[in-house]
Amino acid sequence: MKDLNAEEKILAVADALFTQNGYAATTTRDIAHAAEVNPALINYYYKSKERLFSIVMRRKVGLLFGSILPVLQDGDLPLDDKIERVTAMLAEVLQGDLNLPMFVFGELQKQDVSLAEVLPAREIRESSFADQLARRQPGTNPLHYILNLFVLSVGPYIMLPLWTKVELISDSEVKTLLAERAALIPQWMRKMLG
Fold first, then answer.
1. Domains of the chain (ranges plus CATH)?
2. d(Cα 171, Cα 176) in Å, to the nearest integer?
């Protein structure tokens, strides 16, 4: 943090505080205090808390979708390989930040952030992945399989706070269970696709 300039510090701290506390519970004063900068610098660099939050949200969504979108769009990669790579990539990103899905989906519901602005829905719908799914299962909307892949991959991370709170799984079991699941998802998807 010491090597970052004021603008970078503000963004890094805002990212951490918004993720931990949410938009509503994070003030610009909290961000300035944690970043050890004058609160006026937040307005100078980012114009408003809303704009700073929007930048953080775009970065978070970019983490979720940025690396997998090129894989989904790769017309040369076979469908089964795409499913394996996307599952592995999502697992890597999500295991690096267990709170990422809860933050993204929870805050998108609360804030006036346009989903169309941050989620690459059109790119996913028009990807070669969607075409390959449609060819593998003609007559079935490929969105069913796309949704299944994302729900199977991301859903457990959304449920983690509940699972650990009711002691369905212990904190020490989380990483093992999630790693096992990442290996199983491609198998489940292949069975669904026939």
1. 6-47 (1.10.10.60), 57-193 (1.10.357)
2. 10
